[in-house]
What does this fold into?
Amino acid sequence: MRTAICPGSFDPVTLGHMDIIERTSVIFDQVIVAVSRNPIKNPMFSIEERVEMLREVLSPYSNVAVDSFEGLTVDYAAEQNAVAIVRGLRVISDFENEFRMALVNKTLACRIETLFLMTSAQYSFISSSAIKDVAIFGGPVEGLVSPLVEKRLKEKLKGCYKGKEG
Ligand code: ADP
It folds into this structure.
């Protein structure tokens, strides 16, 4: 059985993430979407909330599981017997970081490959941080995230945004 890991922050999961995960699930027997516990980042949603949202939106995919991990992605991938780490690539600016990370990971664990899937054109501009920026100022995020995530963003931000009426 060939397992791939899709690691990330998923704060929150977007349609861009879901597209990459769905396409990975066609290529591999099993996909583990792994939410990283990164103490340096200051997330909007807790690990538990992010895992729960991912589980809900990915429930139609029978070969996709969701988990969280702490520490090095390659260590987690090895623990899960994964053969690949799959990352999405959007614009050129993603490339430098991803290239560096893939080389570091290859040095740490030479048997685990990093594979990149090119973003789908309609999702190329979507990022979790852009979604949060729009949502914080009360803008529409419909069509960028699933309806469930849209609802969770509204709940999370209730009372934070006063709107034009004050
Ligand atoms: P990280 O903080 O590890 O970059 P993210 O949650 O931002 O975590 O992203 C997880 C993965 O999903 C990364 O490989 C990222 O490039 C990819 N990704 C995020 N948004 C998109 C998108 N719109 N299209 C394709 N891939 C994406």
